[in-house]
Amino acid sequence: MVRFFPMKHFILLAYILIFSTGFASLAGLAVLALRLSHPFIKRMLLVQSLFIANLALVAGYYYAKQVMDLVGTTSSVDFTFAVIATLLNLALYGSLVYLLSLHSFRTAHKGLSKTALALCLTTMAIQLLHLASALFGAQALTSSGQWSVITYLVVGCAMLSLGILLLKSRKNDDHPSLKTLYGGIGLSCLLFVPLGAMEYVLGAFTQFAYQPLSLEYLMYLLINTTILIAAAKVLAKQPQSGSAFGELTPDTAKRFLLTAREQEMASLIAQGLTNKEIAFRLGISEATVRTHIYNLFQKVGVQSRIELLNVLHQ
């Protein structure tokens, strides 16, 4: 049979796509962290960085095997790749444990959060066994079919619980970008389960032609797409010429003795911007924004943003 598109070229193009979206999503997370300053986003930066590092190792392994013919010729090269891969997997699941330790997860969905956390810790224990078997020459312990099934089940359950947790957390946050992140990443984690099962069957009973590509990378592409969409949403949030509350009139500003900066704050609040977004827009610190808003509340005699807007636009 004639191959019109060699496997090596296909794999190369696939990795170019995966890495390009991966680095783009890292930039997207950096933008989101700057604009929203949310702990979930900051911790996702660590998770994403470690996942890219894992992908880079797999790509390096494939290059060493297919281009340089290093893998399989010297046991030291295989051993080095195996140890580094295990260490990176340990770090990756450690970052997920760090993500799951967020206060919002532990308080809103305590039982589910504990389950996901326990499964991730179990996965780390499995990775430690892999590392020990590689270091002490006991690969037979972790290379059996039963061990592979156990590993897939634990990882699959961990991703399933994480996906459900993120989807439930989506309901607790009103910001559109965060809702997009929780929903998209949550669905991606759920997608891991059927993709992982399918890949296990393909690897166990068929000749899967496109190793080292993994079907689970589809989940990663979906996560990258989700992050880019969320970043686009927060960047597309531009000042509106008007709002549901209308423009602040000079008479109102004069009546409450509002400074030019306080009038600007009122306008940005009317557009629905958070303190972090206002600080980014004006090039000032969040502490300064809070001070201006506090002074604004004191002058108008209100205690919330809704009260402020209602009083200013009566």
TrEMBL record:
Domain HTH luxR-type: 251-314
CDD domains, alphabetized: LuxR_C_like (cd06170)
Classification via Gene3D superfamilies: Winged helix-like DNA-binding domain superfamily/Winged helix DNA-binding domain
UniProt keyword annotation of ATP-binding present: no
InterPro entries hit by this protein: Sig_transdc_resp-reg_C-effctor (IPR016032), Tscrpt_reg_LuxR_C (IPR000792), WH-like_DNA-bd_sf (IPR036388)
Gene Ontology terms: biological process: regulation of DNA-templated transcription
Transmembrane segments: 12-33, 45-64, 79-103, 115-137, 149-167, 179-197, 217-236
Molecular function GO labels: DNA binding
Keywords, sorted A to Z: DNA-binding, Membrane, Transcription, Transcription regulation, Transmembrane, Transmembrane helix
Protein name as catalogued: HTH luxR-type domain-containing protein
Species this protein is from: bioreactor metagenome
Source organism phylogeny: unclassified sequences, metagenomes, ecological metagenomes
